[in-house]
Amino acid sequence: MVALFQSQENIVGEVVIEPIHGKKVEHNGVKIELLGQIELYFDRGNFYDFTSLVRELDIPGELYERKTYPFEFSTVEMPYESYNGVNVRLRYILKVTISRNFVSNIVECQDFVVRNYTPPPSINNSIKMEVGIEDCLHIEFEYSKSKYHLKDVIIGKIYFLLVRIKLKNMELEIRRRESTGSGPNTYVETETLAKFELMDGAAVRGESIPIRLFLSPYELTPTYRNINNKFSVKYYLNLVLVDEEDRRYFKQQEITMYRLLEAS
């Protein structure tokens, strides 16, 4: 279990330092930092701080007994969500440092999670597309909208206008594409998160197949576009047709995911 916050919230708490009984801790000051960091796995160990706040908790001195330091970071700007991906991690931490002379500093970190919520989009157009192989196959498909919240339902239809090849089955995939880095150091990872069978067997001309795919069972995140110039996460609906000779035909369409504030 970790603490959960959203942007502009106050982050308030206490730091408790308790020396081992009978021993004192000499120090050059105690501070707490709130850090927002991005770590790219091909550059592991290098953290890019996009948020960095600090509060001094104590001046240099000695600690003989348990001491409690209250702290507060007010209306903290946390524009990006916590994310743990294939090649990148975005995290927020509280980091307490007891500075000392001649010996190493004492450092303790505590992660917390940030989730940001979006109101429903004012414009949410449907998606209409055609896929075809000349004189063999002509399909029209339609999704009721192009932007979905994480617990939404994808509703649509597929129309067969021309069918001259023997189709074996058809499925709809949800794919996540994570791209990290830039230029020659760009890494792209595509994961198939869900496969949903739409049809098993041959289709005939004039047939219409409904789509109803619930998103809530899947571990989805919102769409992230160019986060701090370090990474992006995009989602796609991929329609896959397979004929009797196991040839596969694809049609891919990007959708936008967002996190809708759930009524409590």
The total tally of domains equals 2
Provide the low-confidence segments as ranges: none
Average the pLDDT over all residues and give the rounded result. 90
- What's the architecture of the largest domain, going by CATH? Sandwich
Radius of gyration, Cα only, in angstroms?
Answer: 26 Å
Largest sheet: 6 strands, mixed
Shape summary: elongated
Roughly what percent helix? under 10%
β-sheet strand percentage: over 45%
Structural class: mainly beta
Distance between the termini: 20 Å
Number of strands: 20
Textual characterization of the structure:
- InterPro entries: Arrestin-like_C, Vps26-related.
- It is found in: Cytoplasm; Endosome membrane; Golgi apparatus, trans-Golgi network membrane; Prevacuolar compartment membrane.
- The protein has 264 residues and is mainly β.
- It folds into 2 domains: 4-114, Immunoglobulin-like (Sandwich); 127-258, Sandwich (Immunoglobulin-like), CATH 2.60.40.
- The protein is 0% helix and 60% strand.
- It has no helices and 20 strands.
- The chain has strands at 4-5, 11-17, 25-27, 30-40, 47-58, 61-63, 67-73, 83-84, 88-98, 106-114, 127-133, 137-143, 147-149, 153-163, 167-180, 187-200, 208-214, 224-227, 231-243, 248-258.
- The strands form 5 sheets. Strands 1, 4, 5, 8, 9 and 10 form a 6-stranded mixed β-sheet that branches. Strands 13, 15, 16, 18, 19 and 20 form a 6-stranded mixed β-sheet that branches.
- Strand 9 (88-98) and strand 10 (106-114) form a beta hairpin.
- The chain is elongated, with a radius of gyration of 26 Å.
- The mean pLDDT is 90.
